[in-house]
Amino acid sequence: MSTSYGMIAEFDGxxxxxxxxxxxxDAGYVSFDTYTPFPxxxxxxxxxxxxxxxxxxxxxxxxxxxxxxxxLQTWISLDGYALIFSGKPLFSAPAFVPVxxxxxxxxxxxxxxxxxxxxxxxxxxxxxIFNASRFGSVSSHGFFVSIESADAKYDSKxxxxxxxxxxxxxxxxxxx
Amino acid sequence: MDKTHRLTGFLADKxxxxxxxxxxxxLALGFLLGHSNDQSMYLSYLTAYTFFISIxxxxxxxxxxxxxxxxxxxxxxxxxxxxxMATIPTFALLFIPILFGMHSLYEWTHASAVAHDHLxxxxxxxxxVPFFVIxxxxxxxxxxxxxxxxxxxxxxxxxxxSDDEAEQITAGMQKRSAISILLYALTVSFATFDWMMSLKxxxxxxxxxxxxxxxxxxxxxxxxxxxxxxxxxxxxxxxVVTKEHYHDLGKLIYGFxxxxxxxxxxxxxxxxxxxxxxxVQWYLPRSVGPWRTMASVLVWGHFLIPLFVFMSRHAxxxxxxxxxxxxxxxxxQYLDIQFLxxxxxxxDIHFTLVDVAFLIGIGGIVLNRFLVRxxxxxxxxxNDPYLQESLDLEVY
Lengths: 176, 396
Description:
The structure holds two protein chains of two kinds. By secondary structure, chain A is an alpha+beta fold. Chain A folds into two domains: 4-49 and 130-175, Alpha-Beta Plaits; 54-119, no CATH class. Chain A contains five helices and four strands. Chain A has helices at residues 14-27, 43-46, 54-80, 93-119, 156-165, and strands at residues 4-11, 32-35, 143-148, 169-175. Chain A has a four-stranded antiparallel β-sheet. Chain B has helices spanning 14-34, 38-68, 79-85, 88-94, 96-105, 111-115, 118-123, 129-157, 163-175, 177-195, 208-233, 243-274, 277-283, 289-309, 313-317, 319-341, 353-376, 387-391. Chain B is globular. Chain B starts with 13 loop residues before the first helix and ends in a 5-residue tail after the last helix. The model of chain B has no long low-confidence stretch (mean pLDDT 95). Classes of the chains: A alpha+beta, B mainly alpha. At the A-B interface, helix 4 of A face helix 12 of B.
């Protein structure tokens, strides 16, 4: 048998999956995930996930966009292509606001969207979880939880028993 | 569970009584102290008046827009704006001194000034005394109509026996919200033109009404947040209005801070770029001396400080930071109104004892009207179909 990605178990509905996630969290597992046909409110807390770092990336993107926008226009206006128009000073802060604002927004959006891709390791052309035989139903009516073999607490036999004890069915070891 | 919460204690008994007494005394003192200089006195009155009515008009917008969007989250924080907007008849009464002061405030009411001024002659079909009075009657008629309708329906809903009836009332309020918001937008915009923009009748800006509206909604949100915090301290709704609601109110405050800046800059930017005397005249007195300092204060206090302090989710959920920002923005709104009105007449900052008297005077009377209404009914709409959604609110 090839290397194992982890153990997957199926649950009957959002409620039982929610409580299973809490029990897995309390048992000390860290590398585990839940799969549902629709988002379940509060699941992040039930899984014990920490706050996302994404807002910090957005902030960095915004500040970077602001700086680049302002620096770009300052350099062009003062040095790159100094040209007086409308009798305004070469450095006219109000005139720089729209472009600075737009670049702030643009960079914030880029950092947020691509940062989210990065944190989620997207795009992923292959994911081991699809090797699970019953996983297809996740897009219509299946509620799954997987504990990954990368987890320090992972042990093929114990994890299987644990998933069974918290009410999981169709427990299956998933190939890498 | 009995969900009806009544206002009791200090806020219901002593505060309304004392605020009315102090308010009337302060108002009388203001007229007494100021009558030697009519223009200065009426400008102070207009400043205090437009500051307080901005809170009321902002509350009205928030009530209508919640029905328009079929919003559920804000049901538990809707009664305060509902009762606040219902004080609008008081403002119709308080408008009477402005009618008496028209001649001191508005240049276009002087026949002699208009006779020598081609531009004012061209604007006379709009800027004349009878039409000004008629327009203001229309504004107040529309506002009183909207405020009474939404206030009464919501209060009546508290007493219905069945869910069907409650749903019918909410459906009715939602149905009328579209026409209400249209009327609201037109009346607020034109009222701003009449009250504040026509102080400088040679100048105009089409976005001026939106500028005042943006500040008004922001101020109303700060007022609502602070009121629920004070109510919470007196053990009213302290378990019902949670951090989740303050978080959402905070997001709206943050949004309107940015919206105000966007509008303020849009108005300034076009004027600055075009540099045409007709438009620049409004900004000239505001770009020198103490008013320039005031402009910087507004940029920092009305935009940059809230922008960075209030950006984080944790700041919006921390009631100390939240209330600090709300108080700062209330002060900024008052300075903003000063900045809109006073530089048209004074080259120096003009904040006198008369300003203080009118602030306390109008503020005291409005506080009394608001609290008297608030204590008569439940502190939250108990039969709203969206109530459970609002109670369960969680912000991610």
